[in-house]
Write a structure and sequence with these properties.
Low-confidence stretches: 88-93
Number of helices: 24
Number of strands: 10
Main location: membrane
Structural class: alpha/beta
Organism: Salinicoccus jeotgali
Strand order of the largest sheet: 3-2-1-4-5-6
Shape: globular
Membrane topology: Multi-pass membrane protein
Domain RCK C-terminal: 536-618
Largest sheet: 6 strands, parallel
Transmembrane segments: 6-24, 31-50, 62-83, 104-129, 135-155, 167-191, 197-217, 238-270, 282-300, 312-337, 343-363, 375-396
Amino acid sequence: MEHGPSVVSLAIVVLAALLTPILISRLKVSFLPVVVAEIIVGVIIGDSFFDIVDGNDPWLKILSTLGFIFLMFLSGLEIDFDAFTQKSGSQKKSKILKRPLPNILVLTMGIFSAMLGLSLLFALLMRGFGIFDDVFLLVIIISTISLGVVVPTLKEANLISTRMGQIILLIAVIADLTTMIMLALYSQLYADASKPLWLMGILVAFAILFYFLGRVMNGSEFIKSLNNGTMQIGMRGVFALIIMLVALAEGVGAENILGAFIAGCIVSLLKPDQDIVHKLDSFGYGFFIPIFFIMVGVELNLPALFSDSRVFVLIPVLLFAFLFSKLIPVAFLLRYFDLKRVTAAGFLLTSTLSLIIAAAVIAEQIGMITNSESGMFILSAVIACIITPVVFKQLYPEGENEDRVINVTIFGNNQLTVPVAHSIAGGLYNVRLIFHKNFSDSRERNTENLSFQEIPEYSEEALDAVDAFDSDIVVVGANAADINRRVAEMAKNRGVERIIYRVEDPTREQAIKEHGYEPFSALLSSKTLLRGLIESPHMMDLLTDEETAIYEIQMNNYRYDEMILRDFPFTADIIFLRIMRGQESIVPHGDTRLQVDDRIFMTGSREYVEELKRELELY
């Protein structure tokens, strides 16, 4: 009886993918990105050492290709296009900034343009000295920055929402997007001369069509009703989009990864629910992508690579070009930040991996470079990814959160919103109350942390003119239900994460929750308080006394992830009451471990709780 292809090699690779993160955790080598560790494991089990995996196994070839496609899709999905529309706005005084920052988009585009120019200079020098001749490919490889390394490193250092973190992130986004387009152009120019360049327009046209189709489906209540249970229409739609754009890309003569990358960009623009994003990340990084990276290591033949004497020249020169093409342009930030932060940023932006691997694989497939040269490029990227995040963490100073505030915008000027605005303003909260002049005669005076702003009408133009949605939390608390509905919709469309929605009709509360808003009702709150006072006479003291009030904090700081409470350094003036982990309610004890995304309920002084919110929530 004939058997199909063996799955032994697949079993070994899947087992290696399972054990790699476990070994990293047990050996406490958290400085090593998991994807780099997977490549190293692939080298060990592949051609270079034990040679127990068949690199030509058809199962592994297919799954590795799917992993490559999914990696490029997630690279597109990681791009936050809202970053391109952010305004510099007014800035609070900061101990970290030397002077106010200019427009962030202009600043970061200027820095990346300088990086691109230096990459071209290094590429020309390398060709002039006979090190490598393909200038276009070198520019792509030197100028690219890996979002897959930058984003996790910033998150682990709790810097992703800081000023420097946002600058680093936006430079990486621009680099990722630009170099992906350059790689697509490179493959189109050299891969298949029979396909004219204008055919790429067909891919762009279909991408635009799919985007608008996705917007229609996002707004359809019928489609949303199919997103539960076994139907999971959202996930099916995402995979259909990936496959269709990959097929279209191949049909017009482009690389399939371009179609996958465009699919990721489309999904990012559609602002999917975080639940879908988590599922896609889990699906990709839980199965397909580890297989791809392990197979990169399997096919990396180090003995053959180091038998080529050029490796001792090309790799050091590439590492030099990677570093100084980033450090020199980033030095412009010395006008605004200190030397340590700027140097650390330059090292982190030297991190480069997935797109170099993509460029090396594609260039080898179309015959532009040899297998040995492809290995040199990949090895240089692996070395850069091992070194640069470690240097970044060592150089970057701590204490970045000391001057953070939570910006709160409250709509409506009435007996409910004004007292609340006064009570929370100051310290952690910077509050702005926006109202229509025809609805109130109140003329409150602005203070340092509380401002009152009149607008002529509740229209998109009027609200955008005052940057009404440039806020962490939006509270729609006007007396008119139609105003609250319109403002809440505008806030959601502008990407505000938390929207607190005033609703006095109990029948609408569930519908508001389904739209992702947090409902509150003055009528229902009063009834609840009255009942509580009848049943528990001293409850009002507990709720209103700042020294005994109950607070909720969302744990976002990776520094305290998996820390047991008895080792938690901020327990002097607070008492932990309850921890909500998903749907699970946990009574905290000394051995309870904190986890990222925990919701912690506690009591203590307001000043101390605000300090703790700065440390844990990282707004």
